[in-house]
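One-letter codes give the sequence; each number marks local geometry. A record appears below:


***
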Amino acid sequence: MNDSTLMQSIRKLAQPWGSDESYDSLIAEAKSASYVLLGEASHGTSEFYSVRAGLTKRLIAEEGFRFIAVEGDWPSCYTLNRYIKGYPDAADQAREALSDYTRWPSWMWANREILELAEWLRSYNEERPESEKVGFYGIDMYSLWESMDEILKYLTSKGSPDLEAAMHAFECFEPYGREGQSYGISASLYGEGCEEEVVSLLSKLQDEWKQAHPADRENALSAELNAMTVQGAESYYRTMIRHDSDSWNIRDRHMVAALEKLMEFHGEGARVVVWEHNTHIGDARATDMAQDQMVNVGQLLREKYGSTVYAVGFGTYRGTVIAGRAWGAPAEEMQVPPALKNSWEELLHRDGAEDKLLLFSQEETVLDQKVIGHRAIGVVYHPERERGNYVPSILSKRYNAFIYLDHTHALSPVQTGAAFTS
């Protein structure tokens, strides 16, 4: 396919983005899905968060979507969930609830964009019965020790007979000083893991929420999700030392399992809006991830639930972003350089330097055969090494729709004790 044919295809598909009409057209496409997956090309771009928030509010208020699931830790997101639902012992203010986001990279969820969404959700929930309140949950699995802490708090508060078993299970992790990598090295290389202990604990907590008192039902669910997180994180850290696809696949399979548990909890007909990076929500089979035998949330959900899954990818040509130079390094506002020539982002910019929406129908288009680089910025970012940030992708097969934002800006972190530099 020559450049002229490719640009003609883009021009035919692209429509202006940003007006009420453009939101209407995307909502009309996505509203019948059970899983609406909203991506992002970075974890530190304001417009990705604000556009997702705008779409999410409409899906909740107009279409009855029941909860939001994000690429975040269960414990800290559950603190925000309690504020959003107005629980008696919850934080008094959204900013206070966000103070639980202390694990790096805290800016992913402790930011002004999420603060505004949290206030909207709190207001939306105020006049609704408990069974109709919209929730906010984290489905990632990095919070190994934080989840163990929450399980012990819950079992202690209930005077549960399972408390002793939980304390025994968690004693296995004590030698590793709350360091996942230290545990992974020991478990992978020396066979000194804690898998049996956490599997046994999860079996004790599984589905307890089904028999719990209505007022404690969600807290019982939280205990189970924390146990699932401990099990998933134990497996993740045990395999990550090998640097192969297993640890990635464990993480994304865990996120799908957590989503399914939340769907079960919210009952028949429940629908969810998922916020995760493009690398998780865009179908891995339409990228070079498939060559490395990697799967992701988007692929797994599509394989199981078909057309009830609707994925929206995001991209930008240039701007600024919040990221770190290394894992655990201070957050910085960095420049995002103009996209590489002949990447999806550069082609969309070449078509015109304005925001665009592409809706990919079920009909075959010439774009369905075109593998082109698509920018992905992580929490660790080096703009000077830009060429390594592109994932070869068939855009129209990776997503159902794509939102292109030509010039974007760094999001605004809310201070939670984590370092930040400008």
About this structure: Confidence is low (pLDDT under 50) at residues 417-422. The chain has two domains: 3-138+271-421, 142-259. The domain at 142-259 is CATH 1.20.1440 (de novo design (two linked rop proteins)).
